[in-house]
Design a protein that fits this description.
With 394 residues, the chain is an alpha/beta fold. The protein contains 17 helices and 14 strands.
């Protein structure tokens, strides 16, 4: 794995060990997808110094070099190669079978019949590719170029970071040596559960019996900005911002929150400028975060990830997805707030996958016997009670 990151000494060591244990094939993978033909040639020659058996290659297509690298490997004596229809595979995918068949046919001076493969692609794989979205793009290309593990890109796309955030995260990860995938750095919806680790900040001391206003960055917030700010000044709810983009005056925000470590990397520069405390699960922070946020006041509210589950504790919570909204709802319940107001939660079209995900989160939350009453004070497409901020201000 990650052959591009292996030293000559490691390759020699594995080659010698293979001569002792005699595997059928010694396979190497360009896991980061950043190698070129010359790199492949050097790796193959490195193995061949000590290993005399069969070699195999598994190529990733970040730089759209998977086919070329596979052919270079064949030219240099590699006898086992693999590919997938349309390159199907994690993230940028792999060498494409429909092209490799033609090239291998040329090597053996045969004319393969590609009509069955084309039919297979047309009838089955085109639809799958459109649905699952494998294949290279500019983000995977940059990941391959800078030696960043492609799973970071895959998960940033999965949690739907915007393009600016993805590019900023790539810039941060290339400084941080993102070639090793840290399973605790990001957990999207298809990841395994995260064990609950307690924090040392208890929201009850600040929130008990008080109204909590959660602020998101939907466009409706701008429309009602003046009235919301007036409500905050008069009624003094505890104001928690779910991101740094909210247009509410910063001096009216009591806390910012964030629970997804990868999004924190993408928004690191923005968070460095806030004055209010930042509530985060410190157990998920890396050395990168600690270094970047050393000037911030961090409040450690612990978190764990568990499917279809909300559980609230004095200093932590189990949540079903690592989304800021789920984290914020948990803080309000753990703090025993009187009720939760929402502003800027505009939502998306009803057919949008994100609408379903957030509605499911709110349904799971309200099904818990420790859930607080939720009222949106700006228009929303989500399924919860709505009132007018004008009515609240009367």
């Amino acid at each position: 794995m990650q052959i591009s990151e292996q030293s000559k000494e490691n390759i020699n060591y594995v080659s010698r060990k293979s001569n002792i244990h005699k595997p059928n094939v010694l396979y190497f993978a360009d896991s980061l997808g950043g190698m070129r033909s010359k790199n492949i040639e050097n790796v193959v020659k490195g193995f061949q110094k000590n290993w005399k058996g069969a070699l195999g290659i598994h190529a990733h297509d970040n730089l759209e070099e998977a086919l070329s690298n596979t052919l270079t490997a064949i030219e240099n004596g590699v006898s086992w190669v693999d590919s997938t229809i349309t390159g199907m595979g994690r993230g940028p995918g792999n060498a494409k079978t429909e092209y490799l068949v033609l090239e291998v046919g040329k090597i053996h001076k045969k004319n393969p019949n590609i009509i069955p493969i084309n039919k297979l692609i047309r009838n089955h794989f085109s639809g799958l590719k459109n649905f699952y979205g494998w294949g290279t793009n500019s983000f995977y290309y940059l990941a391959g170029k800078y030696g960043i593990h492609p799973t970071y890109i895959q998960e940033m796309l999965s949690i739907q970071l915007d393009e600016f955030e993805i590019l900023e995260a790539i810039n941060q990860l290339k400084e941080k040596k993102g070639n090793k995938y840290d399973v605790n750095l990001v957990r999207s919806e298809f990841q395994k559960p995260i064990k609950l680790l307690r924090g040392n900040w208890k929201p009850e001391k600040k929130l008990k019996g008080k109204e909590v206003l959660l602020i998101s960055s939907g466009p409706k917030l701008i429309e009602y900005k003046k009235e919301i700010e007036n409500y905050i000044k008069v009624n003094r709810p505890i104001v928690i911002a779910l991101n740094t983009f909210v247009p509410i005056k910063k001096e009216l925000i009591d806390y910012f929150i964030a629970c997804n470590p990868l999004r924190l990397i993408a928004d690191a520069k923005l968070y460095q400028s806030i004055k209010s405390p930042l509530i985060v699960p410190k157990s998920l922070l890396t050395d990168f975060h600690i270094k970047k946020f050393k000037k911030l006041k961090l409040l450690d509210f612990g978190v764990g990830l568990k499917d279809n589950k909300f559980e609230f504790y004095k200093d932590s919570a189990l949540i079903p997805k690592l989304y800021n909204v789920a984290y914020a709802l948990s803080i309000a319940s753990s703090g025993d707030a009187s009720r939760i107001l929402l502003a800027g939660f505009d939502g998306y079209e009803q057919s949008d996958r994100r609408t379903r995900i957030v509605n499911e989160l709110f349904f799971l939350y309200t099904s818990n016997n420790k859930a607080k009453k939720i009222v949106s004070i700006t228009p929303t497409s989500y399924n919860f009670t709505t009132t007018s901020v004008y009515a609240l201000n009367k």
